[in-house]
Amino acid sequence: MQDRSRTGALVAYAYELIDRGPELERDALVTMICERVLALVGADAAVLWVSDEDGRSTAERVCGVRPSSTGIAVERALVELITSEGNQVINSTEAPLRPGLVQLCERLERERSGAVCVGLQRRHELLGVLCLHRVGVGRFEGWEAADAERFASFAALALHQMTERERAERDEVTGMPGRTLLLRALDERLAGGQPFTLACIDFDGLKAVNDKLGYEAGNELIRAVAAAISDLLRPGEIVGRLHGRGGDEFVCLLGERDQQSLERRCGVLEAALDRAAVPPDLASSYLGVSVGAALANGSEQQAGSLFTAAENAMRERKQERRRSQGRPSGGR
Fold first, then answer.
1. What are the structural domains of the chain?
2. I need a labelling partner for 83 at 20 to 30 A (CA). Which of 58, 132, 137, 323 fits?
3. pLDDT, averaged in runs of 10, over the chain (332 residues)
């Protein structure tokens, strides 16, 4: 009966991950994975380590009680083994023969505790490591580690689907939010009904760099300007690219709530970005930015009209700057 109950729980959690996982934001999905595996295996703590593109792992979420210092040391050692040697599942009761690890696991068992770490593998990509702890109530049995491993295969699929969606929603050149994420964030702010500012930032010089040095040099300039804008944002503000590869325009959702502070912020952004640190070989082509913005006043405003107002303001400012600098009004 107990086996049937565990199998039923595993199937239910697996279907939940498959059905809901692709639609969830990262934090919600990671929390779901940790909470479900805690319930499935009867662990006291779950920790999800996530691997970056360079293979480095960091602990992203901890659910449940805090393990002892010995448990944490064992966890880190097991995560290192999985990421470096490709082990799929390691139980502290059957520790691999590594210097210091056996002694650590023996100390953990004397504390009447245990740890299991499972690789979240999708095809040949290690997405992360899921670690479970039992604290002061005994070790994990082999069948419990096996249940955790089976659950991990579904968790890996859900993480993979979420990662693919995130990549599709982000700008490939800068990694910042692309059209889908920007429009979603804009709709959320409009639905909230509170005033905010939508700003369009356009920079001059990209065409000259593309023509003289090639498109990869142009992408390098785009990334430099993107980094400079990001450094100027306040908590909760967003910058992204609406038009994707090759475009020299950025869109920002800013916190300014009245026209006076909007105009002041645009001036501050322009002044700072005119001095942006771009690669030395591109500096002669970079001619600074033009910022135009529109205030969302909290009424029944549409995203399209807000974009149109901000883009018109940006184009007017662009022409003003070109006239003041004695440059032709056309081209980039």
1. 2-169 (3.30.450.40), 179-325 (3.30.70.270)
2. 137
3. 72 85 84 92 92 75 91 93 86 86 93 94 86 94 92 90 79 86 88 92 90 90 94 94 72 94 95 93 92 84 88 93 77 49
